[in-house]
Amino acid sequence: MSRLENLPLNDLTEAQKKAYLGTMGDHGTKIQGPAVAWLRSPGLYEHLAAMISFMRYQSVLSPRIREFAILIVIADWDSPFPWSKHAPMAKEAGLAADIIEALRAHQQPHFSNEDEQTVYAFCAELREEHAVSHAIYQAMLDQVGEQGLVELTTLLGLYATVCMTSNAFEIPVAG
User: Fold this and answer.
1) Are 19 and 35 in contact (CB under 8 A)?
2) pTM, rounded to two decimals
3) Per-residue pLDDT of the chain (175 residues; tens, 9 = 90+)
4) What homologous superfamily does CATH list for 63-164?
5) Closest by alpha carbon to 144, among 30, 66, 56, 37?
6) How far, in Å, CA of 70 to CA of 22, rounded?
7) How many helices and strands in the chain, by DSSP H and E?
8) Cα–Cα distance, 32 to 84 (Å, whole number)
9) If you write DSSP's letter for every residue of 123-142 in order, what string do you get?
């Protein structure tokens, strides 16, 4: 059960309604996930929603690599709501089911794709060492280029924010 009451669309303030409908359009019929918290600050919500939209639809990262990196963060944070959304998206994007399951079980996956191994190493090193070695940095740079590397690093922080919000406010998995 969430620590925040749900915000029915009809009960939103004008600022909240403008922010939500401006990002969700006609799809914004049910407020769920971290939006339940973020809408308490409509300006914050607009910026975070725009960032998520950019990462999903405009990032140079492939959907498979993007969703893989997102799942790495979500697994680290044990965050049920975003896991419920992104595990199916990762599978649809082509991430192998055994990799998804290994992340869910907090185990290091076995990789058949070198690009996934590089992403995993980059994410793990950044998380554990709070820095990235030259070798891993260079491998990641060679794989996705400067723009991709900036986007990947930002994506990790963005989804840490999603997870922190979901966990702090005990956002339930949507039914």
Assistant:
1) no
2) 0.94
3) 689 988 888 889 999 988 888 877 655 567 889 999 999 999 999 999 999 999 999 999 999 999 999 999 999 999 999 999 999 999 999 999 999 999 999 999 999 899 999 999 999 999 999 999 999 999 999 999 999 999 999 999 999 999 999 999 999 997 6
4) AhpD-like (1.20.1290.10)
5) 66
6) 25
7) 8, 0
8) 12
9) HHHHHHHSS--HHHHHHHHH
One-letter amino acid for residue 72 of the chain = I
155: Cα within 13 Å, side-chain hemisphere: 30
DSSP code, position 161? H
Give the CA radius of gyration of the chain: 17
Note the residue count of the chain: 175
Q: Scan for tokens 């140079």, then name that residue.
A: 60
- Taking the alpha carbons at both ends of the chain, their separation in whole angstroms is 12
